[in-house]
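@channel sequence for tomorrow's demo:
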Amino acid sequence: MMSKKKIVLIALSIVGLAIFINSFIYFNNAFATNNSSSVNNKSLYWNKTTNYFTYKSELGLLNLNLGKPFDFSVKKNNKVSKTSENKSAKSKDGVELSGIDWCKRYTNSSDIKDLNPEFRKKISRFINALKKAGATVDVLATLRTEQSCYLFHYAWLIAKNQINPEDVPLRSDVKINWCHHNYYESIAAAQNMVYKWDLGYEPALYSNHIGGNAIDMKISWKATSKNYIQIDDANGIGYIISTSKLPTDPAGSILIGIGKTYGVYNLKGDIDHWSSNGH
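structure tokens (generated this afternoon):
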């Protein structure tokens, strides 16, 4: 019959062996994950409350704020190694990694003159009515290239963790590589692009901007002595809007109704985007 001391020693040995096995499995999996060339969806967690991406690695919890660019500083062995956030060195076939360098490519227009003539006529009448009433109109974007729409659309989806970077379809005329050496940096690069472009809504892949049938513009107004402005629709009917209201609901719904009379339609959920068909 074994003594109590031997029984305790055997029990402790079993517990120690179990801890060793579990630790070995954990660190082995972590090593495999961090050294894998494939994109690992399980490493990134989206926190809807804070709008932060949390990446779990052997370095601990790393947070990316969607509202600020990330500089890829990583602490290792109490030292900081830093790599460029652009990382745009070309491969032999001319393909470059994603990052803010791409935000300078494929110049787009913010000139109303570049719009489709038919849509330009309608939006110009609407803008003139707004300005006549005392509103300020700042045009942000008019004509865009297909390449820009492609970059906007997929940078947004990757940044929002709605698509695996490996699954983004390629374009022969846009030699971009969305996949960095790990999923964490792929997301960060896309977030930097979204931040640089100041995107507030998911950009369409096949946008009306491509054909010059859409415009992004900021509409605002200041308080007046009368505390309201009157905007006339295309039929000459005036609509009163309090200057204490912003160009959003309920004032936004009034603007949307006025715009329709001029043949321009607002995209639901995006008060800045107006087009020939509401998309």
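heads up for whoever presents: The longest strand covers residues 214-220.
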